[in-house]
Amino acid sequence: MIERHAEAQRFALSFTSGALLMREAAIIAPIYLHERDWARVRAVVTDENLLQARTVASGLRLVREVIQRLTVLTEEEIELLIEATSTERGHLLWAAACRRYDFIGEFAEEVVRERFLLLAPTLTHDDFDSFVRGKALWHTELVDLADSTRRKLRSNIFRMLIEAGLLSESGRIQQGVMSQRVATALASHAPNDLRFFPTNDSAPRRALA
Description:
The chain is mostly helical. Helices cover 57% and strands 0% of the residues. 29% of the residues are buried.
């Protein structure tokens, strides 16, 4: 008998190191523009312990995670990341996390943005847990997820949202008001990466602030 629903591609869930990693990205991005080779970047950052990791193993994990996120950005976005304000950097790195991890991207679009558009002002742990239960129908890796791992993933995503300025510490969703250059960069991606943000916009506009 043919199954009604084919199992979806497995979610990558390795985003348990840090949150947006803004400091680390700001260190690594200029090295990439100098080297233009991610393997060389990894070697330089690791050998010189530029991220100031406590152990070799933790340093390798952190470098790998930052590079995986930066590789989904275009060279123009990496250049922008280097000269960006803190707010701009947060928006770019949130988009990078959403591109790198479909799980985060789908949560951003289907829960965070949707709640914002429906004028639901807050984001709660129950919203995340409900999202996981729904996705588990097609993603068996979520069925077997340990409670401690689920809580860690939830904590990291919420921390990313806070660091990106899209969620308050009290859990209130905050509109993503971005600069023109960041909005233009995200809107030029296909599909439009403004979908990852709590905003009414589907195309670039001049920031209000």
